[in-house]
Predict the 3D structure of the following.
Amino acid sequence: MPRRQRGVSVAMRGFTLPELLIALALSSLLLLSSARLLPMLQLRLQVWQAQATLHDDLEQLADLLEKQLRRAGYCRGRCAGKPLHLARHCLGVRWDHNSNGRWEEEEFFQFRLREGALETRRGGVPCQGGGWERLSDPAAIALRDILLLREPGGRLRLRLAAVARRDAARLLHSDRDFSGINL
């Protein structure tokens, strides 16, 4: 229905009902498909975030253990005893913390794996007794294994294995290979 305006014929028309219905149907399909996609993306993001958090927690624990193990055997004099005590899921490290030339009982640092948590304490009988403090949160991360191997030439190999409590299917490892300078 052309209409004349200032001598020019202009077609003034909008969408027809079938065109409007087709546009609404297509936009509804797009909206429904995005609504199904969003929860899946959120779930994948949560899984990725949990794995990243687990990896960070595991690396922090490995950093702490590596730092203590690098110090093992340091003595600013003549120290008696073994600088490193290894047992299943437990390790003890001696080093001259106050640089007085001898290893005292409070300079014996112990770490153990118990009920999925890494625990520590100073002094005492290796891997026994009370007074242990948790270094990891067992509600978030479950440590499965702690392994320390002594290799020729004073090299140490540390391996931690853990899973997130939410996703116990995926096991993560932190492997460290370093020199035990004082051993």
Remarks:
- The chain has one helix and ten strands.
- The chain has a mean pLDDT of 88.
- Residues 54-179 form one domain.
